[in-house]
Prior knowledge:
Layout: H1 12-19, E1 32-33, H2 45-53, H3 68-81, E2 95-98, H4 101-112, E3 120-125, H5 130-137, E4 141-146, H6 162-167, E5 168-174, H7 186-199, E6 202-206, H8 223-229, E7 238-243, H9 244-247, E8 256-260, H10 262-275, H11 281-292, H12 295-315, E9 329-330, H13 338-349, E10 351-352, E11 354-355, E12 373-376, H14 381-396
Parallel strand pairs: 1-10, 3-4, 3-5, 5-6, 6-7
Antiparallel strand pairs: 2-8, 7-8, 9-12, 11-12
Amino acid sequence: MNPNLSRLQPYPFEKLAALMRDIEPAAEIPPISLSIGEPKHATPSLISNALVAHIHQLSSYPSTRGLLELRQTLADWLCRRFKLGPAAINPETQVLPVNGTREALFAVAQALIDPRDAALVLMPNPFYQIYEGATLLAGATPYLLPCTEATQWRPDLESVPEAVWKRCQMIYICSPGNPTGAVMDQAQLMRLIELAQWHDFIIASDECYAELYLDEASPPPGLLQAAAALGLDDYRRCLCFHSLSKRSNAPGLRSGFVAGDAQLIEPFFQYRTYHGCAMPLQHQQASLLAWQDEAHVIENRRLYREKFAAVLKILDGVLEVNAPPAGFYLWPRTPIPDDTFARRLLAEQNLRVLPGRFLSRADDQGDPGLNHIRMALVPPLDDCIEAAQRIRAVCEQ
């Protein structure tokens, strides 16, 4: 058995189930869950129609590289969205379809980390637990970058010791962030790229929430955009990861892509040919149409803006919480310990949220997840309003 398996912690939702095991919520109160970041808005019909139209392609093996037409669509989308200029992404060498960002963010560490050199992999804290699991199973050691109110919920790159950068082989970043919604600005991304060039490490930028932002005039910048601003037209040491799960409300499609440095994409492609994870052809056809359409994404953002406004109005004065610039989470500070608060919400109001400590790790600098909860505003508007009212009722007690 792989000995690194013993280093893995239970997933946050396993911890949540254990925390709530002895609670029997009031049966007369309908359950509402804000604990899991699974989009509940309708999947666009263009996706489902394309799946049906191409279901006959189940009889064919897909290629790991993916359809050129899909890769061209992805390259064109990146160029438009991040203002890279026409033909700034080569669909032959700089884009690879993947079965959702979770699978790819995990696999990229297995493919590109060399564990023989006491490798460190840096990541934000709190974080998406896949980063930690990928690091441990690749034989490397996680190094946590605390993201707190003092750092504007973003990694403080300048506080990282030189010795850590020297051992760093990869850094995971998530912008917009899970769970805080914080956005790394272009200057910070450019600084990180400069550090990567100097110290020779890879940047794996999880941008799966990049299309969910509150201000239509201020889309979050991306890693490749920052690289282009530095004149790195080959996106050296840079990989970005995008998904249709949040953008297009299609988590079950398991469709995303990785793009960037061709010198990294190629060995990752080689790894994936053995991994056996080619995207089904009917999913590729549906994905192609989804990335070409922006109307449903604009409507998706409108729905989330509506929910943020309604929920924050209700919670005003009872919880310390602000609207994030992006994502679909709220990250409020709790008036009592986060796990106790979560238990009370379930016991008294049949409402599930995720304690912040389940998304973070404690170190000598403390635990940045303590006394926070993550609220995923994914249910319908009426349910989000009802959930906020239940939280307010508990706080006022």
